[in-house]
Write a structure and sequence with these properties.
heterodimer, A: alpha/beta, 5-stranded parallel sheet, 5 strands, 12% strand, elongated, B: alpha/beta, 10 strands, 10% strand
């Protein structure tokens, strides 16, 4: 059994070498499904620590992007060894960079952190039209819709999306969180979102409160 | 001198006095309206990129109707140049949207190419990067040479058109333009155009030594590119001014900033200051943890367009070093009332009391809805009346 504390620490320290070595060790064993589950949890805990280190001003966006990539590559390695449907999900989020904007670095950071927090994320990608988001909400019935954008023009698309969700009768059943450079309290109010954040770790906490 | 030329001179004096940290008659107002100007004049961003005259007309309308002391720059892009060279990096998501650049399109260079890049960045740029970026330059001669000649010709024509717009703004409206060119930090070059932002963050951790060397090796090219633009236009009575948008610093840890960004940044800033060129970085994001660094810049020889920052803290930390530009939230122009906008402008001017501040938005206005014209007009008028130094 690998030392799970070391794994959590390596993820938190963004120490790729230590993390990869431990993962390879686990995967080299037979009948490792149970251990793989534990390893996933340990990495997720490491990611939570990454978020905390971002909150405290020790890490910045570059570190979050790197952490997201590290976690993604670990999960890709572990996926074949994970038994299907074994991991309990904390909630469901439909996520999109809104229509008119193709900047997704922030959205991707949020995705990796919220996935690490055990949410099921349906990521619709970039430049997502309003009706596509509404249709997906209809289809998967999520707890939360997350809208992201960097350009100021994204704000209009966010507002149109929230309006369309209201019109389609979903506004009472889903919470909406907006994120990205131009969002602030004023904008959040005008758009009619439930919350805003320019900080992925904080955004995750807001989502956890909603489904908690 | 004609009335218009007097106005032109008066505006220039106001702005350059403020940049030198001397007290002018009042707070100058800088128009930072970018592609928003297109929409203000009834065009789209694409239209003004393909027809530079329309860009000129849009800027004339801004100069005529929005009460500014200076317009930051001619904002459009030469569509013909990109077309001649076969660029695929610029995306219009719809007819009315602004042009955007994707991180995917930026991935031009492999991570094992750093040694070649470091050895001779200019050769690498010309022989490797450009053909990957521009499809026409990847073809064999003479197609490649023809495309290059066509691109150069289009670029020359564009330069001429820009000069004519600048002349018309001065002659008809007494309206000066602030920026004579634009430079980027070597790290932002690598992240934005060669490796992609995500890959750059990977390289910083996986290949720190090579990454640092590449930044260093590219720095002389940035200086050359800047000086080229300084000398491209005719001489001016005032110093030439370069815009220096800074992209990655707020995303870096301070230790990484110290290692990868600051040494080149300081070298570039010192070089231009020594050559009487005012470089005005756009300090994107939150720079408060780097204010102590900025105190090391040559005093009174640079400006700083800020997106974030507490005016009082900026004033206290940087008041002897550089002139502060910006800070007014663009989203307030979009969503706020006239009264809210004016209250914010008052707060800013009071916070920056005593000079060293040029009023402007915290970021360039780009999209059609980015600012209500009536809010812009009201705020600018207020600043010109309230911002008089007694």
């Amino acid at each position: 059994m690998v030392d799970l504390k070391v794994l959590t620490q390596a993820m938190s320290d963004l120490d790729e070498d230590v993390l990869n070595k431990a993962i390879d060790e686990v995967l080299s064993k037979d009948n490792n499904a149970a251990e793989v589950q534990e390893v996933v949890k340990a990495c997720q805990q490491g990611m939570t620590l990454v978020g905390e280190r971002y909150d405290s001003g020790e890490y910045f966006i570059g570190d979050l992007v790197f952490a997201g990539e590290m976690l993604q590559s670990v999960m890709d390695k572990l996926k074949p060894a994970l038994s299907a449907g074994s991991s309990a999900k904390g909630g469901k989020i439909v996520l999109a960079t809104v229509f008119g904007d193709l900047h997704d670095i922030g959205k991707n950071i949020f995705r990796s952190m919220v996935e690490a927090a055990n949410f099921e994320v349906i990521d619709l990608g970039i430049n997502v039209p309003v009706n596509q988001i509404v249709d997906k909400v209809k289809e998967v019935n999520p707890d939360i819709v997350g809208l992201s954008g960097v350009l100021t023009l994204a704000l209009d698309s966010m507002k149109e999306t929230v309006d369309a969700l209201t019109e389609a009768g979903f506004r009472n059943s889903v919470k909406v969180i907006i994120g990205g450079v131009p969002v602030n309290e004023n904008v959040c109010k005008s758009i009619g979102a439930d919350a805003f954040s320019t900080n992925a770790a904080e955004g995750v906490k807001i989502c956890q409160r909603w489904v908690g | 001198m004609s009335e218009v030329m007097n106005l032109y001179q008066e505006r220039l004096d106001r702005v350059f006095k403020t940049l030198r940290l001397e007290q002018a008659d009042r707070v100058p107002v800088l128009g930072t309206y970018g592609t928003w100007s297109s929409y203000f004049a009834g065009y789209t961003d694409a239209e003004t990129n393909w027809d530079t005259d329309k860009c000129g007309k849009a800027l004339m309308k801004v100069a005529d109707e929005l009460s500014v002391d200076m317009i930051h720059m001619i904002y459009n892009r030469p569509g013909g140049v990109y077309q001649a060279l076969g660029s695929k990096a610029f995306h219009y998501l719809s007819d009315s949207n602004i042009v955007q650049y994707s991180d995917e399109s930026a991935k031009m260079m492999n991570d094992d190419e750093y040694p070649e890049f470091i050895k001779d960045p200019f050769r690498f740029l010309v022989e490797k990067i450009l053909p990957r970026k521009y499809a026409e330059l990847a073809k064999d001669s003479p197609m490649r040479d023809l495309a290059f000649a066509k691109g150069a010709m289009k670029f020359g024509m564009y330069g001429g058109q820009k000069g004519a717009i600048e002349g018309s703004l001065a002659a008809q409206y007494g309206m000066p333009l602030l920026f004579d060119g634009i430079i980027l930090h070597p790290l932002d070059w690598i992240a934005d155009f060669f490796r992609g932002i995500k890959n750059a963050f990977m390289d910083i951790r996986r290949r720190p030594a090579e990454f640092a060397e590449a930044v260093q090796a590219f720095t002389p090219l940035v200086i050359r590119l800047g000086m080229g633009q300084v000398h491209m236009g005719p001489p001016k009575p005032n110093p030439k001014v370069l815009l220096f948008p800074l992209h990655l610093p707020p995303m870096l840890k301070t230790a990484d900033f110290d290692k990868f960004y600051w040494p080149s940044f300081k070298m570039i800033m010192e070089f231009f200051a020594a050559h009487n060129v005012y470089v005005i970085p756009f300090y994107e994001g939150d720079w408060s943890r780097y204010y102590n660094h900025l105190q090391e810049l040559p005093a009174k020889k640079t400006g700083g367009w800020f997106e974030h920052g507490d005016p009082k803290e900026l004033k206290q930390k940087l008041t002897d070093t550089l002139c502060v530009i910006g800070l007014f939230p663009a989203t307030l122009l979009q969503y706020g009332t006239k009264e809210e906008c004016i209250a914010k402008a008052k707060e800013l001017i009071d916070g920056m009391e005593g000079g060293g501040y040029i009023f402007g938005t915290d970021k360039e206005l780009l999209a059609p809805a980015d600012g209500k014209a009536e809010n812009i007009i009201a705020v600018n008028k207020f600043v010109m009346e309230y911002g008089i130094y007694k």
